[in-house]
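Lay summary. Proteins are chains of building blocks that fold into shapes, and those shapes determine what they do. In this project we predict the shape from the chain. Here is one chain we studied, written as its sequence of building blocks.
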Amino acid sequence: MVRAMSLIHDMSKKMRNHMERKANISVIGIHDRGEKTPEKIESKGTCTWDITDDGINVIKGDESRDESGEMVTTSFRISSSKIKMVRKGSFASVMVFEKGVDHVSTYNTPYGAMDMKVKTDILEVDGDENHLHAHVKYVLEMDGQVTSNSDIKIDIRA
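And here is the predicted shape, written in a compact code that computers can read:
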């Protein structure tokens, strides 16, 4: 944890002179919903990447089509101890990952809204000025029921 904070701080100092820049992003999610085989969802694309003066990595994904063909955008705010993921589209959500802290938000769908709770078990962030890697393991509950045990890896390269 201390190492990750130090790396993020060093990366932030190096990049303060940089403007928002284009990068490639890969997000791989493995979601175990209690079925025989966990579902793997992989998304690759381009994004813009900037680092705020206080060391927060701001990643804005370019608009793309999700697995159902809908247009979506996904953005991240990544620090050494917290990740906020915002997904906009017909299925919209805000998920906050922070080890040891349960975060509750709303999952909006064309069919209605559901409460969702994220319980983060593992959150790891590492990188330098040209590469950022984050790993999150979490439990997702919807309307009080566990719906998946998930493992997400986010990889960003300038």
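What the prediction tells us: The chain has one domain: 2-157.
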